[in-house]
Task: structure prediction
Amino acid sequence: MYYWTIVAYLLAFIFGARLVNEVTRISSAAPERMAIVMLTLGIILTFWLPTYFIGIFIIRGFAGEIRKQTIGAYEQATRNYTISSIVNNYYSIISGVFSQLVMWGSLFLSVGLKGMNHILGAFSLHQPDMQNGSAITLTHLVLAVYMILYLMWLLLRTRKQSSIFES
Result:
């Protein structure tokens, strides 16, 4: 499972831009809105094992391309390439750490210390943890809700900033 996740990441790295371009070309919606829809679809697809890797591919493809487009727009507007790189890395690290805190925090709250020992023990032995399956699913759900709410917040924030620049 872990190796297939890495393969999905690599495929998104290689073919993600093509996916984003095709979906944007076909869709009549604004690119930001289409990205939110596709990221949400990717998150939903991760709940069913046969489509899990497709969901990872969609999430990574769209997230990577949106990040590239955002950085490109910022650099084109400001001509500030050094600060752009530093800020991009800074926000990537913060968002990754915060997402991990949400995931591990919700898992810890679901199973407690004894359950965490059992889950991590099963993980280290490369075995599924059937005893805490519902807690792991709940953690997945909490992380998915967090990610979707974050995407909605970004969409609202983008609209507000666009209206500021237009006026």
In short: Residues 81-124 form the longest helix (44 residues). The two ends are 50 Å apart (CA to CA).
